[in-house]
Design goal:
Radius of gyration: 14 Å
CATH superfamily: Sugar-phosphate isomerase, RpiB/LacA/LacB
Largest sheet: 5 strands, parallel
CATH topology: Ribose 5-phosphate Isomerase B, Chain: A
Structural class: alpha/beta
Strand order of the largest sheet: 2-1-3-5-4
Shape: globular
Order of helices and strands: EHEHEHEHEHH
């Protein structure tokens, strides 16, 4: 199923982001690349905020953020009440972040994740649905 995806990164996630965009376009997903557009040093909160602002009124988008480890982007993204960002380093975390937490932003470490691993993580994240049920009550408590 085709997804609407916003993607953004800092300089440390740039090269992996470029490869991910190419991969997702081949799968016919709608991609909006919000930058950065090269590997020159930038501040990750700025590129996080661009994505978060676009998602504010567009709940039909999934977000992908990349920085060196993914930690900074995760912290920055989760400051916003409409964002549930999950830093995922493997397929199990990607699946559970969607099933149990209804994560709407996937965060990947550009310096800590191989392209092959990133593809698998993204595929699981995009294809897994939120289970609702007992998890809905828990999400309301953190909203």
């Amino acid at each position: 199923m085709t997804k609407n995806i916003l993607i953004s990164c800092d300089h440390a996630g740039f090269y992996l982001k470029e490869q991910i965009v190419e991969y997702l376009l081949k799968q016919s997903h709608k991609i909006i690349d919000l930058g950065t557009k090269n590997s020159s040093s930038v501040d990750y909160p700025d590129y996080c905020d661009i994505l978060v602002d676009k998602m504010k009124n567009n709940s039909n988008f999934i977000g992908i953020l990349l920085c060196g480890t993914g930690i900074g982007m995760s912290i920055a993204a989760n400051r916003h009440p409409h964002i549930r960002a999950a830093l995922c380093s493997d397929q199990d975390l990607a699946k559970l972040s969607r099933q149990h937490n209804d994560a709407n932003v996937l965060v990947i470490g550009g310096r800590t994740t191989s392209l092959n691993s990133a593809k698998k993580i993204i595929d699981i994240f995009l294809s897994t649905e939120f289970e609702k049920g007992r998890h809905t009550k828990r999400l309301k408590k953190i909203s």
